[in-house]
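This is your field. Please look over both lines of this record.
***
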Amino acid sequence: MMNRFKVLRPGESYTFAKYFELAYDIEDILADLDCRFDRADLTLPRTDRAIADLDDLRQQILDGIRYVSITSEQARREFLIAPIIRQICRQTQKRVRVEYPVTVNDWLKGTLDYYFQDLLVIEAKRDNLDSGFTQLAVELLAIDQWTDSEAPILYGAVTTGSDWRFGQFHRQPRNVIQDLKLYRVPEELETLVSILIALLD
């Protein structure tokens, strides 16, 4: 029986950002990294406690949409993504590492946008959630080897600022699952923040 054709080349170096540019299907890329891929309707936890300052957060985001030309990655980060990250840090008292460098090996290395202990949030470049999720999946595989956390599932989210999509990496069976649902901001801001807080509590 012939071996499956591999899309990642032995001896070549791949950064997280390079995975975003690859034209191959996510299933093929993850297979080369000894991981399976599925899509499913995930049941994500939500916090039971009241979310403080939610109206202020919503207003900040609305102001960003109304008054700022959100055409660059920096504008999306500063006016749409960063306010949400700051809010969940305040709510959970958890620290976040921003643009955090990680090197596991030549195929798993690069910079993580927003990295908590068991949660990763990355920005989808050029508003491309599909390629962004491929990058997220690879970064979750890197965190699996990098972290000393023993959590059986690592969570991640990829966002354009306006759209958020979650994913899970089940560490023992080595399976990445992409959530079928998209969460829209500001329309579903409360639900989104509730999930992010619950994942960190």
About this structure: The chain has six helices and eight strands.
